[in-house]
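MODEL INPUT / OUTPUT PAIR
PAIR INDEX: 1
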Amino acid sequence: MKAATHRVAHEPAYVLHRYDWSESSLILEVFTRHHGRIALVAKGAKRPSSNFRPVLLPLQPLQLNFSGDTEIRTLKGAEWMGGHVMPTGESLLSGYYVNELMMRLLARDDAHEALFDAYAAVVQVLATNHGDAQAATQSSALRAFELLLLREIGLLPSLEVQTSTLAPLDPDARYSLAPEAGLREAEAGELAALRGVEWLALQRTLDDRAPFSATVHHVAGMEAGLGAALRTQLRMLLNYHCGVTTLRTRQMIRDLQGL
């Protein structure tokens, strides 16, 4: 007797990436709240008459219906949940950067509900016009998301102790995040290192009941030099675990800023 096909309905999700599967269909990489990152085939999605065409966009909150027990499931229905418009300009590129991180670092079929909530929050920030403070607000949101992503997938060490010795941090000493060694005392000349008091404060925000908003608020209040140092520390760690020197979307943003 044939086993029943597994069906999922009304699943909160975001499209991370899409690519052609045939003349009329797409393969979607989506991030779902309860099933993690999964692959779906959207049959006929490229046809002009398809109901999927205006819905399957990145950085938009969706509810999906899908079925199947194989590596690539079949999309049965998709509904846009509203809430915000598509980010534009540099905000859109920042959203693609977040999606590239997710594609490179998240294993399939591994649920991360807290990370899903943080992803939804950072996308909301990117889609909102913050006026003159927009760049600073979005930068703080990106740093918060990077920290939460690294912690959620087990790549961020405790920021309360030195990783190799478990010795407590000296609030006045300077420490760096090394990809293979974790948090360690900084060597002379490491300009991007942060003092122990800063790492300890970041750990407290990550442990907050609302870690995304708490971390955004804390990073936004950091002095410009400290914020830049944190960005450098996280970028080195992320690039190492992504296996690249520079992420493609980051290079695109850099090129556009150069123009």
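PAIR INDEX: 2
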Amino acid sequence: MAVVSDMPTSSLADNASTNDRYARAQARAGVILALPATLLIAALLIGPAILVFFLSFTDTSLGLAGARFVGLGNYLRMLTDPGFAQSLRNTALYVLVVVPTSIGWGLLVALLIAQSPFAAVYRTAYFLPVAATLVALATAWEAILHPSLGFANSLLLLLGASPVRFLSDPATAIYALAAIGVWQLVGFNMILFLAGLSTIPDELYEAAAIDGADRGLKRFLLVTWPMLAPVTLFVTVMTIIRAFSVFETVAVLTHGGPMKSTSVILYTFYEEGFRFFRVGYASAIAVSFFAFVTVLSLIQMRVSERQARWKNKGGRS
């Protein structure tokens, strides 16, 4: 300290000035390095999103000159459009089947794999549908569910049952797509639950064993399930978002048919924008869907923050 105090004031000022110049140079370098990625994000994501938002208030149609400002007309049309109402019902049915089934199945598989000596093999097998291309998987399922040559109907005939037109019958098509959706999401949910299980301290299980909950359902309800609450919330929100975002299997397998029985929200958006070229109306559907996903994500973040504060205050028993 004595050495520093004996230094001339001009030397201290020079050092401070040098540090300031160095900090400014670092800041400029950071801006320059981040600029290409920022411009790319703005050009590919932010810019188109803003454009879609403004187009949702117009009657823009590809191939027609000019566009009129219609205000909330496209959004009001969504409330009275029978085609959009049908897509909402189909999407809701799809979500009601896929979300609880894929979450429950994923949790069950995670619990079983966590105790298995072949955990790595099972993780790989269940995660393959997540890593593979959805269009390729949909094409494979098209062959499996073929009404006359598919493996599914061959198995039914072998068991003495009648063949089922899985994808061409309005009564079964949405459920066939939901089964494929469950198959795709189970592996993703399983990985998340396995990550959650790995964070549960062994001391809690030891304490539960002392209280008599050393195995089975009692141990699961007393320790495992409460400790998985944050992971379960995240898995639920992500599964709902992914279920509402179903598109590839519909586009490849059914094209929204038969008789609009599998026309979901994103496929309706695709048809309005890229088949009927009603860009303004399609933009309104896209903005509404984005708003729904955003609200759902914000709710998940808010609930997660409350859970974290509750635990920090000693709420965990």
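PAIR 2 NOTE: Residues 118 and 124 are 10 Å apart (CA to CA).
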